[in-house]
Amino acid sequence: MSGELAAAVVTVSDRTHRGEREDLSGPALVNAVEQAGGRVLSATVVPDERTEIERELRRLADDEAVPLILTTGGTGFAPRDVTPEATRNVLEREAPGLAEHARIATLPRTRFAVLSRGIAGIRRRTLIVNLPGSPKAAREMFEVLAPVLPHALAVLRDAAEDHPTS
Questions:
Q1: For 65-102, what is each residue's pLDDT tens digit?
Q2: Cα–Cα distance between 40 and 121 in angstroms, integer?
Q3: Are 40 and 33 in contact (CB under 8 A)?
Q4: Domains along the chain?
């Protein structure tokens, strides 16, 4: 089973949101999705604020029905890195294997992969995956997940069609 890779990219960064720094990780992810044969439906920037992150994830999942949301940023150890916590607040079910695989697969490239606290999970028919804020790390983690994402999205879509009340 396979499916189309259609995604929204959300950059989580105070400085980028304030216009103090150029967004490099968002465009790197957009490029990675397109190189994987996917299509990017939107790319937005939000500050490192739980309520703002949650609002954007809910908007994309609930109002826009985006199949895949890729976040970049806010997954480290800094006090304002709250993307995993905000994501967990909007998820209905977690998908820990995705984040675990991304960390393990990229560990041979950088020992810092283990410092990513990103999570993944499902809200309605949307898969949400947190990726690091470094353009290189975000791209590498996406690339190791890309082969399984179309199948995951197809299962979510097909399951919803089989069970219209879900």
A1: 999 999 999 999 999 999 999 999 999 999 999 999 99
A2: 19
A3: yes
A4: 6-162 (3.40.980.10)
